[in-house]
Amino acid sequence: MLEKLFRLDNKVIVITGATGLLGRKHAEAVACYGGTPILLDLSQQAVDSFANKLNDKYKIDSIGFAIDITDEKSIKNNAKLLIDKFGKIDGLVNNAANNPKVEESSDKNFSRLENFPLNIWNDDINVGLTGSFLCAKHYGHKISKNPNGGSIVNISSDLGLIAPDQRLYAKDGIADDKQNVKPVTYSVVKTGLIGLTRYLATYWADKNVRCNAMCPGGVENGQPEEFLKEVNVRIPMGRMARADEYQGTMLWMLSDASSYLNGAIIPVEGGRTAW
Question: Can you give the pTM of this predicted structure?
C-alpha cells in the first residue's frame, strides 16, 4: 500500500552515536514511523534517558546500550542479545564518529596536517571507520539472515565528496602555519564510509540487504555569525541545515520506499557539492 511505504512498523533499527545531535533525530524519525530504535552510545545514562523519552512519546519498545563500537566483543555480544530479545535486526545506521577537536598551544596548532598526532588519527579512524566496519560485520550479518533482508545507512558527509575549504577557519593576524584547519581524519573517515557503502551494497545484495550512504552538510548549531556568513555563501540554498532536515531522507533510506536503492551516495547539503 502506497501510504505505508515509509512506515517502519515492527522493524528493529540499530543506531550508533544515538544521543548525538543527528543521532537523536535519526532515532526520533524511526520511532515516529513505528520502528524500534536500538540506541548505542558510550553513556548508559544518556541512552536510557533518551529511550524512555521515545517510549513515552511514541509508545514503542526502544532500548539503549552503552557500547564502545571499537570493541568487537561488545558488538558481537550485543547483536546476539538483540536477536534473543527481538528475533531479528532490520536496519543499521552507522552514525557514530569523533568530531575532531584538537587542542592548540602557543607554539603549535595540532589540527594542522604537519602537526597532527598519530594517536588522534588512530582514535578517529577507529571510531568512525573501524567501528562502522565492525557494526556492519555483526549487525549487518544478522540483517542478512532475515527472509526480507534490510537496510544499512552509513552517515558520510559532504566532506566525503569534496575537500574542506580551509579558508572558512582562517583568522586575520595569524601566521599561515598556525591557522586552524579541519583535521585530516574527518575527510578520510567520511570518504572511507563511501567505499564501505559500495562494498556492502554488493556483498549481501543477494540477501536483499541494501546499503546506501547519506552525505549531510553542516548543521547550524550556534556557530559564530562570521563563520555562518562564510559558509552560507558557499551553499546554493544560502544556509546550513536544521538538525531535523535529514529525517525524511533517513526514513526513505530505511523503509520500503527505497526498496531499489542500493549503493547510492546521496548528498543532502543544500547543493554545496553541485558547485
Answer: 0.96
Percent of the chain exceeding pLDDT 70 equals: 97
- Cell 598519530 belongs to 118
Sheet with 91-94, edge to edge strand ranges: 63-66, 36-41, 12-16, 91-94, 150-155, 209-216, 265-268
Torsion angle (degrees, nearest 10) of CA 81, 82, 87, 89: -140
Q: How far is CA 127 from the centre of its chain?
A: 11
- Cell numbers found for residue 70: 571499537
3-state secondary structure the chain: CHHHCCCCCCCEEEEECCCCHHHHHHHHHHHHCCCEEEEEECCHHHHHHHHHHHHHHHCCCCEEEECCCCCHHHHHHHHHHHHHHHCCCCEEEECCCCCCCCCECCCCECCCHHHCCHHHHHHHHHHHHHHHHHHHHHHHHHHHCCCCCEEEEEECCHHHCCCCCHHHHCCCCCCHHHCCCCCHHHHHHHHHHHHHHHHHHHHCHHHCEEEEEEEECCECCCCCHHHHHHHHCCCCCCCCECHHHHHHHHHHHHCHHHCCCCCCEEEECCCHHHC
- 41 close to 14: Cβ distance less than 8 angstroms: no
State pLDDT tens for residues 17-54.
Answer: 999 999 999 999 999 999 999 999 999 999 999 999 99
Report the Cα–Cα distance between both ends of the chain, in Å, rounded.
Answer: 38
The pLDDT tens digits for 219-257 are: 999 999 999 999 999 999 999 999 999 999 999 999 999
Q: Which of 15-24, 91-100, 118-127, 136-145 has the lowest mean pLDDT?
A: 91-100
